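User: Predict the complex.
Assistant: Input components as received:
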Amino acid sequence: MSVKQQQSKEAALEESGVESPLYAARAKIYPQSVHGRFRQIKWAILIVTLGIYYFLPFIRWDRGPDEPSQAVLVDLAHRRFYFFFIEIWPQEFYYITGLLIIAAFALFLMNAVAGRLWCGYLCPQTVWTDLFMLVERWIEGDRRERMLKAQQSLTVEIFAEKLLKHSTWLFIAWWTGGAWVLYFADAPTLVMQLITFHGEPVAYIWIAILTFTTYFLAGHMREQVCTYMCPWPRIQAALTDEWALNVTYRYDRGEPRGSLKKGEALRSTGETAGDCIDCYQCVHVCPTGVDIRDGLQIDCIQCGLCIDACDTVMERVGRPTGLIGYDTEMNVQRRLQGLASLPARIIRARTLLYTVLIVGVGSFMLYTLLTRSELGVSVLHDRNPLFVRMSDGSIRNGFTIRVTNKAATSRDFHLAVQGIDGGQIDSPPLPHDENGRVIINVGTDQTAEVRVLVTVPKDLAQHLADHDDHAGQDKSIDIKFRLSDPDTRSYVAASDHFFTP
Ligand code: SF4
Ligand code: SF4
């Protein structure tokens, strides 16, 4: 059953008062090719986005010796994420959270400005489906030919076309999966490993998963992903307002619709005739099978292709273009009341709010990124025993210190203990500097874990214990480990406690 037949059946059921069933079998859609401004924009976006996706892993970025030279790399083995000059460590995962927040607000902003811009032009499901449809058209022909072939019995020619189509789809899907795993290892090396069957099994598994999902979702599921599986249309519908631009059929211009002949006849007698000639071109090019003349619908991904189709028809019949175009619900309502359209209001409270939030979060992330320290320290006190009394009466506490060097050079850090005058810090067999600080060497872009002992002499330990007894507090005092880089004069500190008997 075609989309049109299904819609007519539902309308008939509604009119007769019988509730339409909750389940309807999928009506296969045969989108027709279309030419025009929005089609061109979509092709350009498709080329740019897929070009970035497939070739980005091969772009090199020099970070110095012993560092990965891939511009964008998720290095799971060393728990790092590289993006050109930015390197994210696991403890800096909040940057990813910040990016996700920016992405969410960017989506809200797009929605407030022009509806489902993401869905219609940028969503991977849309982009890959567009590519798969292009392959389908090249091999099996345009809408009319495909519909005819669907009704014919299987011939050798039809079988060969199907085989070629599915093989090409699988090849694109396999290429897509292959490109995905290249983001997780050095791309040229991994390509050689995969070709010679020396790659890690996990790489082949991920390629197989991505191949299947791309082939299935873009080749077979198509508009059903947008209509049934994706939550964004529902969220988007709740977020939109009457000032958001949406692909809109201009009822006031189009109705009453009718054939070209009928319209001309009505006009010649001075009667009113709409510009819509009911040619269904807007429906035939729609990748989701929507009739935009029925108003805003959740199935419409706002791709703008029906605008191109209708503009072509309008040019052909000598009527002004723009019968379908980006317009606001506010203007639709105004024109229905006989009022003039208002200019689009892109700048309004919600668009300003989203912009401020995006700029605010982005600026904060940029500031913290540019001013972040290239060294880090964390400390963990020994759990058992909390302290050790030495034979000479001094008290010793043990700690595990983790030192992080995010710089592209190996560095000697100096570690001192603060808050406990007279305390001595050691980490055998590491050396001390002239001020008694432990010298810790950490290689390029690495972390080092050292065991550190802090000791206070007997008389000082007794003084601390008396002080704590007097104060009625825990038998511990606050201390700080100060890690400094003598070359850059930068430092960081981590707090802990020194326990006494
Ligand atoms: S109705 Fe128009 S804008 Fe909406 S999905 Fe179909 S072609 Fe795209
Ligand atoms: S393409 Fe334009 S003229 Fe043709 S049916 Fe759609 S709205 Fe009417």
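The pocket of iron/sulfur cluster (ligand 2) is lined by residues 249, 254, 276-282, 293, 309-310, 313, 323-324 (CB under 6 Å).
Let me know if you want any component modeled separately.
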